[in-house]
Structure formats: C-alpha cells, structure tokens
Amino acid sequence: MYRFFVLLLLSAPATAATLSWPGSGGCGTTLQACINAAASGDTVEINTEAVINEAIAINKSLTLQKRGAAALFGEGNNFTLTANANNVDIALSNLRLRGAVSINVGSNSSAHTQSVRLTNLSLQPSTGFSSVLINQLEDAASSYTVTIERSYLTNTNPAGAAVFADRGTSGTARATINVLNNQMIVRGSGVALTVSGHDGVVNINGNRISRLQQLPVGGNLAAGVFFLAQGGGSAPPVVRVTRNAIANMDSGVFARTTTAPVNMLVLNNTVARTNLAGIDLDRNGSNALTGRVANNIVHQADGCGLRFSDGISATHNFNLYSQNSTPYCNATAGANDVAATARFRGRFDFQAENAGAPQVNAGSNSDQPAVVIIVPVPLPDIDGRAGRVGTVDIGAHERSFDQSFEHYSLATNLSGNATRISAPPVGLLAADVLTTSNFGREIDGITPLPAGSANHTGMWYSTSNNVWNIFNQNTAAPMPSGRRFFVLLNIDSQQVFEHVASNSNTGFNVTTLDHPQLNNQPDALPMVTQHWDPAQTGTGVYNNSSIGVWYDTAINRWRVFNQAPLAGLAPAIPEGAAFNVLIPNPLFAASTHAFRTEPLGVPVSILNISHPLLDNTECAHPFVTAVYNPNNVYVPSNLVLSYNPASQGRGNWAIERGDGAQIPAGAAFHVYVDPERSRVCTSEPLLIDGFE
Q1: What is the mean predicted confidence (pLDDT) over 507-525?
Q2: Alpha carbon of 376 to those of 10, 49, 268, 339, 587: distances in Å?
Q3: Is pLDDT of 243 > 50?
C-alpha cells in the first residue's frame, strides 16, 4: 500500500499589514517594541544588516522575516514563541540565531487551532539542551501544527537534540509535527520526540542528520531520530521517518513504546556508521508498535542492522544491509532484502556511485513515501529530485541523470561569439534540453559587471565536433574570456521540452507554448533558454533579444516574448527561433527549489533574493527567467545572477541587469535552484571540515 505524506498550505490573513523595522512609529525603537506594536496577522520585515542584540518573544499571529542576507542575532538571544490562543499563526523566516527557539503551543479547547512555522533559519546555540524546543501545554486539547523546514541546526549538548518535542502525558491534543529538509550537525540526537498516543502525526522527511565523527557511546543514546510513545490515549500516533540521511550516531532510528502505542513508517532512509543498531524498534509493556520498515539502507552498523524487540508487529522488507556486524537481531530476513555493500559517491555523499550500485532499482514502489493529490505521487528524494525513476531505489537518494555544473569561457574553448562546453562526467548528448544562466559578479562595491554581461546568449550543439556551445546572439560580439555560466541537464526530475516558433504559434514578439503542465496553470514557473538550430541542419535562426515568459489569461497559455525596450517596439520573434523550456515539478517546486520573486515597489539596481537553497550558499547554481506577470513590467536586458558575501556568514544571491541599468519597479522573475548542488556544496564540506 502507499504511504502518504501530508502537504500543509498556510495562508496569511488578507488584511495583514507589513511593518518595516527599523522604521517609524511603534517600529522606531527596538525590534521587540515593533513586534508588540504589530496587530495580529501582521508581518514585521527586518531591514538592517546590523547585529540585533535582543531576545524576542512573540505571542500572537505574526510573521517575522528578512529579505536578502539573513538577519543576525547576537550570542545568547533566544526566541520564545507562544501559541496558546485560538487561530494563532507564527512564522519565522531567514534569520540567523546564536540562541535557541522555544515553542509553547496548544490550548485547552478542542475547537482551537495553532500553527508555528520556522523556515530557512540558522540556529547555532552554544549552550542549552536543544536548538528548537517544542512544549505542549499541559492538558492541551487543541489541534496544532509545528513545522521546522529548510533550516541549518547545530547542537553541542551530548545529552540534547537539535529538535526536541515533549507532548507530555496528559491532554488530548491532536498534534502535527513536521521536520522537513533540514541539515543537523549534533553531538547528541537529531530529532527527539516524546509523544502521547492521541492520534497525532509526525513527519520527519528529507533531513541530513550527522555527528562530525563517530563518537563512543555515552551516557545518553544519541539517535538520528529518537521517538518515545508514552502517556494516555489509545489512538496511536503515526510517525513517518522518510528520505533522511543519518550518519555517525549511536543509533539511526530508535522508537520505543512505553505507555502508549505508535505506528512507525520508516521508509527510504540511509543510515550509515552507527555504534549500535541502524534501525531499532523496541516494545516496552503491552502497547503495540506497528508499522513498516522498507527501502532503507543500513551501512556499517557496529550493532544490528535491524533490531526488533519481542512483540513488535511492524513488518519489514526491501532493505539493504551493508557491512553490518549483524544484519538482524530478533528479526528474520525480508524476502526481498539485499545483502551487499552499498556503493556511495563518498563518505558523506550517499548517492549511488553509479547505475550498477546494488541499491538502484531494488526497492518497493508500493512502500516508497508518497503524496496524495488525486492519485498517489512519489515524494521527491532527499535532493528534491524525482521520487522514482522506474523502480524506486533503496535509500534516501534516487539515482538520476540530472546534473548542473559550471562552465568558464577560456582561451582554450573560445571561438568567435561562442565558448565550447566541456562535457561533465555524465556526458551531454545532442538531444539534451539544457538550461543556462549567466553569473555576474561578487557584489563588493568595487568589482564591476564582467565584460559581455549585456549580450543575449543561447545554446548550440555543433555537429562538427559533437560539442555544446554557449554563444552570443549578436554574432559580431566575441565571447569574452573569463565568463562564468551555470548549465543544468535535467532529465528525470522536471519536465523539459523544446519549443520552436512557427507561423501557427507566433505573432509579433510573442510565441505561445503548449504543454499539459503549463496550460491552464498560471502558478507554473517555466524557465526558458534560447536554443539555436535544434534540428541541427546548420540553418538556425538568431533572436538577439532579451526574453521573458507571460501567462495570458485570455487563452490560459504561457507565452515566450521578446522584451520591449524603453523606447520603440519589441523585436519580433522570427519563425524558427527555438527555446528550451524547463517546468519545475509543479507539485513540489514552489516549496523546495523554484519560486517567483516578490515585486518591489521601487526600481533597484540589485534585486536581493532569498531562498533556503541559496542563502549563504555561494556555490549554488541558480537560474532565472523574467516573468511579465503580475504587473506587466518589461525588463529589456540580459539577466545575471550575482553573489553578495555580506558578513557573518549571511551571503545572498541577487538578480542584476547585464546592461547595468535598474530593474524597474514591479518586475518579477522565476528562479530555479538545483537542489542537489546546494545540498552537496553546503553539507559535504561542513561534515568533512567541522563547524564554522
């Protein structure tokens, strides 16, 4: 049967106001005073780069956020979030804290609801039991949701945890706790939850949880995921532990029933190098521990690969046990288990080394995590890529042929207006549908935009030497040396297709796209790259213009258009002009790896953008396309993506015009970030080199 993962969509009140701090009125002094002055449902936007030396308390519906570089709070300044009244919705985004976050949640009324969401935070407390502490009100009866997502959490307490939740032993609260797509570097546990048996739901998905090195077993069990079911109630909570990569812990996943039952779904995880059992399910007393353990890799467990205590009724199958001291303790081998050495790319990179690795296509499709939309859809893997390519792989990663890489124009690869691309390890074929973007500069107040930034570019496959090229649409403009480009080969995870302008689909400066994932989809996020001569006849058509996309509500179709300059008409799109179109996964992209920028009310030279896969990640590979919606604004220029290193590890990416002019007020852009690249270039060096 399919195991379902829940998507939670929250919306702010329509009448909410946005307050800027530092600002005027109630926002003219401290941040806490601004928060106190805000009405319920308002947004407080931080607009200072200075270190904020305040401890913050929020006890009403409020969004606290920062654009661009993250807001930096000084050492020991903790946050206390209290959601004990009805309909309280608290959200924090893009903050860098050297303290902890305490969440007090729940109320005594079964008619009440509460929500707390932490997104894109960096929490690095030097002291304390946990980085995020979730406290349920004693005797709580409400329904509440706590979500921690796309954040970087460290915890140095060997007896503590990055995320700790205590639902207590009393009350009948119906809790949903989501820990999604975070990176945790700890000395103790990653996620430690004590939950009573009152029909709750816990989703622990897509996290990287690791100690920097494998330490001896101490006085406390340090588990990647530690779950304890206790307290009253007879409806077992459902705990989904899916698509996590866990390394160097005492135990990878540990669950125990004491005075309450639990239903554990442990699916498609990779657990490596544990002192004790890789996956350990323990039944204490008469309470049932049910569920399923499937599609997991357990690698180099010094104890048991899988341990069941007596009376466990969970089932298990389709797991790969690799170099463990003992594969099974008190459990028999599953009929489809694999006993082989898992082949990884590296010590901390748990992707399959190649298509012949034993974990590839060896899992159970019916056991993989899924999302219910209309039909069950495979949940993306830990990299945000496709959740299945044919048969699901065992482990947190799904092997695919997707790859992004950097290309530099050098004297050795330049020829006139083009630069030849050296093939990456996966290789490039003539039929590939590639996406490209232009890097601008490091924003330091001194470095100018590189030569050639204003040139409109495209892709071209040369049949004479079977090599892809990036070229200037203006054939008289030589490609300068030293230009940096990002190139995305996307085969499995997102839909890609080629569009050719023809007499039937093109008029003036507009050509209309036709694809089932775009038609009648105004919230789609199409990305477009120009492609010369896709038929490889040597008779391609140049389109020397900046381009964008536009959703035409009159026909419910997306269009590609040539941008109109400030004076004069937009150039017509010639018949035969071609475009590579990338459609980020329509179910998951907006929350994981693609987004539309929020239009600003004033023109800017540099448009800062913020996203968990971009912030403080100089080695990310972002891509950008201008979009005419929602304000009907042209941006008649080539676009470049620049990086601002900022200070205190708060770097951010920005969009600039290649011609150096200002981005007009109301302009908007689609941005795609390669999720695999961002994970590799942030987590792998950290795990190898240690704390910053």
Answers
A1: 96
A2: 22, 44, 16, 30, 12
A3: yes
Angle at the Cα of 617 (from 615 to 621), degrees rounded to 5? 105
- Let me know if 365 is exposed, middle or buried by CB neighbors in 10 A (0-12, 13-18, 19+): middle
Residues 552, 513: Cα–Cα separation, whole Å: 11
What does DSSP assign to residue 515?
Answer: -
The two three-digit tokens of residue 23, written as one number: 């600002």
Count of helix runs (H) and strand runs (E) in the chain: 3, 55
CB count within 10 Å of CB 276 equals 20
Instruction: For residue 127, name the pLDDT band (cuts at 50, 70, 90).
Output: confident
Q: Which residues pair with 288 in a beta bridge?
A: none
The Cα–Cα gap between 526 and 544 comes to 21
Beta bridge partners of 253: 225, 279
559-574: per-residue pLDDT in tens?
999 999 877 889 999 9
CA pair distance 253, 323, nearest whole angstrom: 18
Pairwise CA distance, residues 490 & 434, whole Å: 7
Q: Are 280 and 227 in contact (CB under 8 A)?
A: no
Instruction: Please tell me the number of Cα atoms within 13 Å of 612 on its side-chain side.
Output: 27
Tokens coding 280: 């350990």
β-pairing, 495-500 vs 578-583, is: antiparallel
Kindly give, in sequence order, each residue whose CB lies less than 8 Å from that of residue 119, ignoring residues fewer than 6 positions away: 91, 92, 93, 94, 147, 149, 150, 151, 612
DSSP state of 30: -
Cα separation of 553 and 561, whole Å?
A: 15
What burial letters (b/e) apply to 516-553, b meaning 16+ CB within 10 Å? ebbeebeebbbbbbbbbbbeeeeebebbbbbbbbbbee
CB within 8 Å of 263: residues ≥ 6 apart: 236, 237, 238, 239, 290, 291
> How far is 680 from 345, CA to CA, in rounded Å?
11
Beta bridge partners, 267, equal 242, 294
* Helix/strand/coil percent split, the chain, to 5: 5, 40, 55
Structure tokens at 202: 């816990």
The 8-class DSSP code of residue 564 comes to: P
pLDDT, one tens digit per residue, over 615-668 is 888 999 999 999 999 999 999 999 999 999 987 778 899 999 999 999 999 999
Q: Which helix (DSSP H) or strand (DSSP E) does residue 262 occupy?
A: strand 262-267
Give the tokens for residue 51.
């270190």
Instruction: Report domain extents, the chain.
Output: 3-378
Q: Quick one: which H or E segment has residue 328? A: strand 326-329
With beta carbons less than 8 A apart as the criterion, state whether 299 and 270 touch: yes
Architecture of 3-378 per CATH?
3 Solenoid (2.160)
Strands (E), 70-222: 71-75, 79-83, 88-98, 101-105, 113-123, 130-136, 143-149, 152-155, 161-166, 174-180, 183-186, 189-195, 201-205, 208-210
Give the integer Cα–Cα distance in Å for 319 and 316: 8
Which residue is listed with tokens 């050297």? 98
Token reading at 218? 């101490």
Q: To the nearest whole number, what is the mean pLDDT of the chain?
A: 90
Give the model's pLDDT for residue 565. Answer: 86
User: What are 36's two structure tokens?
Assistant: 């106190």
Residues 386-437: tens digit of each pLDDT = 778 789 999 999 988 778 899 999 999 999 999 999 867 667 888 999 999 9
Q: Are 315 and 340 in contact (CB under 8 A)?
A: no
Please tell me the distance from the alpha carbon of residue 325 to that of residue 335, in angstroms, as a whole number. Answer: 20
Q: Compute φ and ψ for 6, nearest 5 degrees.
A: -100, 130
Total-model pTM? 0.89
